[in-house]
Design a protein that fits this description.
single chain, about 400 residues, alpha/beta, 7-stranded mixed β-sheet, 4-stranded mixed β-sheet, about 40% helix, globular
């Protein structure tokens, strides 16, 4: 009898073992090179082994890794100042993950109303298809049955409405509603973009009813959409925003950003973290911003986006039996195939290019933001080869 694996059986992993990475490439233990258009699920914003990040980690590792928040951490103050200067926010709280950033955002919204004398206002409205994390509160916020099943009663205080359904949204707002929570682009939900006009309506509803607008920019933030944050495309500013993934470039790091008013209830002792904001994470986060905020970087992202969009549109035109739809914003792109998405993902892996599965039968393309025009075209060529193979398979089945 085979020995049981020592890991939890919670992941269905592809049979690939990567030993090292170089920019947008991953290299297996046997030396095979893969174009990484998964980027650790939109995490490796600057690719693999970026020299500036490597140097930042090395330099900080020789000084101090962890202190806890019992003491002042200059790197936190620096990173918070840079993030608040670049966004709507006045305050920042650092975490280790996106789920923790969302937990902080949820607690900040509830505490805001409590501190204003309205403890009854604790409910948060979210949207079907959302993904906000894997903690008990964030799976309740996401509301997807497959993530809730088997974990006991759903955490109270979250109301889901259909994506984009304004009338359902208006109907669910009550005197107990504290906030609206939404991703500018649903990543896990299948690369579904919130139209700017709908985002503006959400802002208006929040202002009308005294609610807070919370944005989950864990996947859309830090340049992924071609702006520093996705909300910048809409002309709308939130009150609270959760950030993670790209901000650490591969190092576990998240942040909850808020206006001074929204964060006014979060006084000493109301929230905390042991690891969050540690000096090593702050060194990496500041190094990421050195690159992303440099002149021309976001222009580069937008230029590469155009190459991908044109290339993918051409593939859709030429392989209508394989590709049903192209979706996305910036370098958060989605291909919805005519067949089960796992077949496209497998065909892409056969061409040594990696993607990420999502809801609604979509494959996400999330290349590192440093991807070059040449690498983008090489990736498109490999995806074309995958489409050729799938098209031939489709024709063979129908023959």
């Amino acid at each position: 009898m085979a020995e049981a694996a020592p890991l939890f059986d919670t992941f269905s992993r592809a049979p690939l073992r990567f030993e090292r990475g170089e920019g947008v490439w991953l290299i297996t233990e046997t030396g095979e090179r893969y174009l990484d258009f998964a980027a650790g699920v939109a995490v490796n914003s600057l690719g693999h082994a970026h020299p500036h990040l490597v140097e930042a980690i090395k330099a900080q590792a020789e000084k101090v890794w962890h202190l806890s928040n019992l003491y002042e951490i200059p790197g936190q103050e620096k990173l918070a100042k840079r993030l608040t200067d670049a966004t709507f926010a006045d305050k920042a709280f650092f975490t280790n993950s996106g789920a923790e950033a969302l937990e902080c955002a949820i607690k900040t919204a509830r505490r805001y109303h409590y501190s204003k004398g309205h403890p009854e206002k604790f409910r948060i409205v979210t949207f079907e298809g959302a993904f906000h994390g894997r903690t008990l509160a964030t799976i309740a916020a996401g509301g997807q049955a497959k993530y809730l099943e088997g974990f006991g009663p759903k955490v109270e205080g979250f109301d889901q409405v259909p994506f984009g359904d304004l009338e359902a949204l208006k109907a669910v707002i009550t005197s107990e509603t504290a906030a609206l929570l939404i991703e500018p682009v649903q990543g896990e939900g299948g690369i579904r973009i919130v139209p700017p006009e709908f985002m503006r309506t959400l802002r208006d509803l929040c202002d009308e009813h005294g609610l807070l607008l919370i944005l989950d920019e864990v996947q859309t933030g830090v340049g992924r959409t071609g702006k520093l944050f996705g909300y910048e495309w809409t002309g709308v500013t939130p009150d609270i925003m959760a950030v993670a993934k790209g901000i650490g470039g591969g190092f576990p790091l998240g942040a909850c950003l808020a206006t001074a008013d929204a964060a006014s209830g979060m006084t000493a002792g109301t929230h905390g973290t042991t690891y969050g904001g540690n000096p090593l994470a702050m060194a990496v986060g500041n190094a990421v911003l050195d690159v992303v905020l440099a002149d021309g970087f976001l222009d580069h992202v937008r230029d590469i986006t155009l190459i991908f969009r044109q290339g993918l549109a051409s593939l859709q035109d030429r392989f209508p039996d394989v590709i049903e739809e192209i979706r996305g914003e910036g370098l958060l792109l989605g291909i919805k195939p005519k067949m089960p998405s796992a077949e496209l993902l497998q065909a892409m892996r056969a061409e040594h290019v990696l993607g990420v599965p999502a809801g609604d039968n979509v494959i996400r393309l999330l290349p590192p933001l440093v991807v070059t025009a040449e690498e983008a075209r090489e990736g498109l060529r490999r995806i074309e080869n995958a489409a050729i193979a799938l098209s031939a398979s489709q024709q063979a089945k129908s023959a």
